[in-house]
Amino acid sequence: MSHVETTQLKTSFGPFRMVETDILHHWGVARQWIMPAIEHGEFTIPEDEVVQGLLNKQKFLVYGQQSALIWENAGFTIKTIHFPFCGGNLKEIQEASVILFDLARQSGFKRVHITGRRGWAKAFPGLKEYCTTYKMEL
């Protein structure tokens, strides 16, 4: 999707930006929605690793007026777009996801993976649970 020319998507909430330049500035705006999602998850990673992934173009930031998402190419044989972190206004995320999924389709992606709690399935009825992750404290 990084080659798609559109840098602003229109939603009823206002523009949703696909960040390609001035990453640190945009991260400064969007981190208020992403960091709670990162800190809440089981697989937390330090903020500097998220920023480094954005700067290295391994992860990509998209954000609107009240929410933000980070996406990456999952690197599977079947071209898969993965959303490891989403946070903020769920309605805005749902609305923007329709546009983002369409752009992903146009860019050759065949699948979407969303990492999150089971509640995401209620927010996105088309999602199907395909694996379960177990953990054990050491």
Question: How is this structure best described in words?
Answer:
It is a single chain. This protein has 138 residues and is α+β, with helices and mostly antiparallel strands. It has 4 helices and 6 strands; from the N terminus they run ββααβββαβα. It has a 6-stranded mixed sheet with strand order 1-2-3-4-5-6, sandwiched between helices. Strand 3 and strand 4 form a beta hairpin. It is globular. It starts with 7 loop residues before the first strand and ends in a 15-residue tail after the last helix.
Count of DSSP H/I helices: 4
Seen as an oligomer or otherwise, the chain set is: single chain
Structural class computed from helices and strand pairing: alpha+beta
* E-strand count: 6
Shape: globular
Which residue ranges are poorly predicted, with pLDDT under 50 across at least 5 consecutive positions?
2-6
* Biggest sheet details: 6 strands, mixed
- Kindly state the percentage of residues in helix: 25-40%
Give the C-alpha Rg: 14 Å
Order of helices and strands: EEHHEEEHEH
Distance between the termini: 39 Å
